[in-house]
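pls design
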């Protein structure tokens, strides 16, 4: 911990160092990297067209079988994000180090949490996927082979929209069953080797989801089928989800993902301190966190939305 007498010694470098350290800690704890394809970007608008499946192996005849990528694509427009923290030059001079360090770390957390914020909003708004249909849909996604990918399902809850632990278990297993049953553009199982899944729930459903994933018995005398499934299922409680009737299940061990996040400019802190025009005119040190990027939907066959009804 940096003590209140060390700011003059460590100064601006210490504050930026604290920012970078917390940035790394929060990014490592985030669910984004496991559920979203993380892409680098170097232009304002990225058009991503490589979302079709590799061809299935067939007996080779006189011609070499080859396949072009699916003609669909989607566009992600990068946005500039920033947040500024001003600190009085007098506070720096009076060695208010702990408070400044705390605020620098909070600013880093804001920068690291940006993908979670953007992607959570995208999930809930449920805009169109790359095929022009609402990303979570009960019937309208079709593969090139003509198979339906229904990634919006309903599970009955006896008390309306509030599931019991057993109903939550049913919802999770039904979602995984759906993901395992999806076919790709060649009519082959899309998620044949899926072993790791993530269940994302709002705060209102966390208690039931936690019980469904961790209790040995789901109800009196009833063993927990999830624990016997052999799958690795991680739980994410996402307080950014506002609806208490939806939960989201993602495959987490595929090369392609249900979400996309791209960075054109990675999170960085810039500063205007003693000697800068800003500080001379305002008497303030300015610490500015910047990030340029955006998120979007990826493959709709990597996730299922469960609605409790």
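designed seq:
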């Amino acid at each position: 911990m940096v003590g209140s007498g060390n700011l003059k010694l460590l100064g601006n470098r210490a504050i930026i160092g604290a920012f970078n350290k917390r940035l790394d800690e929060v990014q490592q704890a985030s669910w984004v990297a496991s559920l979203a394809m993380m892409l680098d970007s170097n232009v304002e608008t990225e058009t991503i067209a490589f979302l079709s499946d590799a061809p299935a192996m067939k007996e080779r005849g006189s011609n070499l079988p080859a396949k072009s990528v699916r003609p669909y694509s989607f566009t992600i427009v990068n946005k500039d994000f920033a947040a500024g923290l001003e600190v009085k030059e007098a506070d720096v001079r009076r060695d208010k180090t702990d408070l400044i360090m705390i605020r620098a770390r909070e600013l880093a957390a804001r920068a690291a949490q940006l993908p979670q914020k953007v992607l959570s909003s995208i999930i809930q708004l449920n805009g169109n996927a790359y095929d022009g249909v609402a990303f979570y849909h009960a019937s309208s996604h079709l593969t090139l082979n003509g198979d339906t990918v229904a990634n919006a399902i309903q599970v009955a809850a006896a008390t309306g929209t509030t599931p019991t632990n057993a109903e939550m278990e049913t919802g999770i297993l039904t979602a995984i069953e759906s993901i395992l049953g999806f076919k790709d553009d060649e009519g082959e199982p899309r998620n044949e080797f899926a072993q790791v899944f993530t269940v994302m729930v709002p705060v209102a459903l966390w208690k039931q989801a936690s019980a469904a994933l961790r209790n040995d018995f789901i109800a009196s005398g009833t063993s927990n089928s999830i624990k016997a499934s052999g799958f690795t299922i991680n739980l994410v409680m996402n307080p950014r989800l506002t609806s208490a009737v939806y939960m989201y299940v993602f495959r987490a061990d595929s090369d392609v993902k249900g979400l996309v996040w791209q960075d054109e400019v990675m999170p960085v802190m810039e500063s205007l301190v003693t000697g800068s025009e800003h500080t001379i005119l305002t008497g303030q040190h300015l610490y500015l966190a910047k990030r340029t990027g955006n998120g979007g939907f990826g493959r709709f066959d990597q996730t299922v939305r469960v609605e409790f009804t």
